[in-house]
Amino acid sequence: MRLVDVPDVDAAKTWAMDAIKYGSLHTIRFWDGVRVIEAKRPAMRQRRKKPSDAEERGKRMIAMKAKGTKQREIAAAFGISIGRVRDVMSREEWRVREEAIQTNRAALSGRANNVIQHLVIEPEADPAERDRLLPERVATLTRRKIMNLGNSGKVTLAEIEGWLWERGLCLSDDI
To answer: Residue 105: how many CB atoms within 10 A of its CB?
Structure first.
């Protein structure tokens, strides 16, 4: 056991996260004079991959369109309707735009994004500014708040904790 003197709880959290990140430690418990607070390295969850065909289909369609292929020919090549080609291509273009603007949000699954959307108030109109402030706002949440929301469970909580961990943050303590 090692005793470290820090000025406040936030400094203790920062010290604990650095010690876990750069050391071989998995869990650190510290006492703030009232209660014991535990900081631990979350399990890093691998994001699920879509089947490669579905993942690449929109990109292949956009590449064919860039070469001058007509939507009718793209539809025939994929065995779908022209309307479906438009839908797939527009969704892929939207996804690429959103990932470029909102890099923090793009790193989360749809379920984790929905949980955060219900719990975090984002008054800014600019999506890039909302995305920049998102990690700090999520770090103010507690495990209890996330778990009490419908459609949120241990896997979603672990994903959000891992996402915060990659950004050097952690969830607030349940008080």
So the answer is: 18
